[in-house]
Amino acid sequence: MNKKGIKLIEKEFKEYIKKIAAYKEALALIFWDLRTGAPKKGVEQRSEVVGVLSSEVFNMSTSNEMESFITELAMGEASLSPTTNKMVQECKKEFVRNKKIPADEFKEFVILQSRSESAWEEAREKADFSLFQPYLEQIVAYTRKFVEYWGYEGQKYNTLLDMYEPGMTVDILDKVFSELRASIVPLVKQIAASEHQPETAFLYKKFPKDKQHQLNLAVLEQLGYDFKAGRLDETVHPFATGINRGDVRVTTRYDENDFRGAIFGTIHECGHAIYEQNIAEELTGTLLDEGTSMGIHESQSLFFENFIGRNYSFWKNKYSLLKEFAPGQFDDVTLDDFYRGINESKPSLIRIEADELTYPLHIMIRYELEKALFNGELEVKDLPKVWNEKYKEYLGIVPENDAMGVLQDVHWSDGSFGYFPSYALGYMYAAQIKQSMLKDLPEFDALLESGNMEPIRKWLNDHVHKYGKTKKPLEILEETTGEGLNVQYLIQYLESKYKKVYKIQ
Amino acid sequence: MNKKGIKLIEKEFKEYIKKIAAYKEALALIFWDLRTGAPKKGVEQRSEVVGVLSSEVFNMSTSNEMESFITELAMGEASLSPTTNKMVQECKKEFVRNKKIPADEFKEFVILQSRSESAWEEAREKADFSLFQPYLEQIVAYTRKFVEYWGYEGQKYNTLLDMYEPGMTVDILDKVFSELRASIVPLVKQIAASEHQPETAFLYKKFPKDKQHQLNLAVLEQLGYDFKAGRLDETVHPFATGINRGDVRVTTRYDENDFRGAIFGTIHECGHAIYEQNIAEELTGTLLDEGTSMGIHESQSLFFENFIGRNYSFWKNKYSLLKEFAPGQFDDVTLDDFYRGINESKPSLIRIEADELTYPLHIMIRYELEKALFNGELEVKDLPKVWNEKYKEYLGIVPENDAMGVLQDVHWSDGSFGYFPSYALGYMYAAQIKQSMLKDLPEFDALLESGNMEPIRKWLNDHVHKYGKTKKPLEILEETTGEGLNVQYLIQYLESKYKKVYKIQ
């Protein structure tokens, strides 16, 4: 093949990908709309639209045309740009993965997913696992079969981990989780025994919704979220979505009797959003213009939520802003008491309401259950029992019913196995990245105290955001921090912080 | 061809159309989003998505596959359902129209359209027609050429009228417009000379935006707008959009110093929306699930805005609701004075701010100019001069500059010639439909006074809404009213109402 030939194919390939990207963008907008304010009666017909667009994306990703592009461009790799080569690699991964599943089984699975989600909703509402069990059994059976089709290295669960966190394995996770657990569990016990429990009554005073909204807008703005490339809406389950890099929307949820949910949720989503708003412009329309993995994405949201939002210096700067919007509520609360109050840690049953210290334990429980399910050591019918045993063991508490326990998360209902670990990985990445950032920005706390976010944001842009999917998660971690995954930074952070908050010697 | 063969083709055709409908629905949502709150920085990339989806719709509508469907299904007409036959007819009309334009010229025209719109915006901002003139000249030149490609019966302008109002002709419009003009012009003069000018100072008192919003929500609800199949947002230019029949959204615009814009705008859009919310469910996904023409659509919005919203009995019922949301503003205003105030009529320069009596004159001016442009009696360069002469003649006033005159509407910038008359047609249809409704519901005013909208809405559903595009506009008019277009009903309405408001003997 001569050079001119390959350039022409490259051009056609890019046009082809642009079309896929356009369909995906339309889908992203539809999903945002469905979650923010789409009228109920239009949803059924909208699902048809989602079906048509998704099929188009699937068909284009697995077409003969795509196969030719992949084959021909792979042969001309040397004369193509690095971006094109990355695009081809991503398309190939997707192509191979999709092609291995027989079309009929994939279709059956898609239909099962939506039925299973409805069954899960009902089961959770009625706190009755038996309503969900038959669906979950099928979902697990399909997923086990898919893993066989896809193949695996080492443990079968590795294949599922790799879908959300390319390169992640059971070996790595077993090691870091056991170290993390060994540190957190005794710390949680020390905290429970501490005589220095923080004041928290002020947290639950009424904070009017519209005032919270104004506070959240102001904080987003000050954190560097670009409102010309985004907007803040209200939803039951907060999220961030990058529709394109110039349109990255966040949502939050206001509880008038506990302002923390909204503000920390907003700061969390802000981290996701700033990632997507700062992906290099030239990646638009290449399918590489998104976060590189769930874990790295979560590292950015947790960096913002925990290392910025729950930082003393941050509140030293923002406490007067907070008071401005909540007149009276914090008048008698010193900054120290405020800081200790928002950093209260207590074992709890619901993952999404957990504090930053106990949160990883919730993830480890799910990880262990998933691993056991796919390594053949656990069956679906035994999930509720083992779930409760693990909560007893790790957190010392047991759910009253399955709605508070094994039924609380949506993830398993559509077969998103391998996803949960990303939450904890993101947290470890974030601590490790923070440590590395401190070498360049030793004045980190002083920057927060002065309200100057620019250097921090720029550092993250340069080391993480701009690359989009052109670098793999472990590449980003290693290039940014000079080492592989190291859980010690998170352990140091948690031990040092919580010993101070609870005045443990 | 045997019967089984045709049924299979019908099935495939319907699947094919469903896909087109899905793309159109995605586009409708994107347009809603662009106009309501899409972040600016995302717009450029969103335009790419619009381009991809629009091209797909265009390609599917003009494909060889579509041509086969049309040909083969036309041959089996007798064994197909009436809906399928209507679908084929609509597709054929579209196919033939699009196929007659050489692809290159169509593409050039699409590019010209977007440039021309930008030029118009700038020209209007600077009140300088010369900036827009060269673009408008090209737009007119292309449209003239397209009319030649499309062909015409009688006058060339008929072909353009037919695009928005199938079956409408210059002959019909000349006749009704001259009758209407003969009635309105002297009435406007009588009104100007009347000693009984209504009080209007109370209209301009401050009415807070959030209170107006609540009022508008309440009125929409009471008019029968289904909020489970819609939502109300705020935009610079109010509109209604049927994304699907279960998702028909309206927008409005609040002016704190004149509540009329929002409330009458909302009632107007409500008429459009109730039309689309009540199209028969079985038409979903057939491309027949929209209003049958611009004129019939406008008949529904104007029926709501004028025959309901500006009706004395309506306000007899709603006046206390209004007062509830605007405490104080109307305390000293009797219902009679209020009614006369909101029905003040005065010649004005801006079409979209005109009252219901003088509004048709604005339309007639545009109609006469368009007709002259396409019958070769007028050139673009002379538009400002002729525009001003006609405003002097019809309304007795002359714009200070072209921004207040010939540059005020967006319609010509993208070549929407033939569209303006629909506004006046809709008004005539509405008066004629009202007259016919009175035979079945002589208690019309009493229903409004008691706040019982149900029988009125149901009548409109049964006679107009449910048919969607399965009936042509003139079919609906004739079947509903027993006669063709008759302007006398509108004339009677305007004369009787305005003589009362202005106490003219």
TrEMBL record, chains A, B:
It comes from the Bacteria. The keyword Lipid metabolism does not apply. Zn(2+) binds at residues 268, 272, 298. Its EC number is 3.4.17.19. GO terms for biological process: proteolysis. One of its GO terms (molecular function) is zinc ion binding. Binds 1 zinc ion per subunit. Belongs to the peptidase M32 family. This is Metal-dependent carboxypeptidase. It comes from Peribacillus simplex.
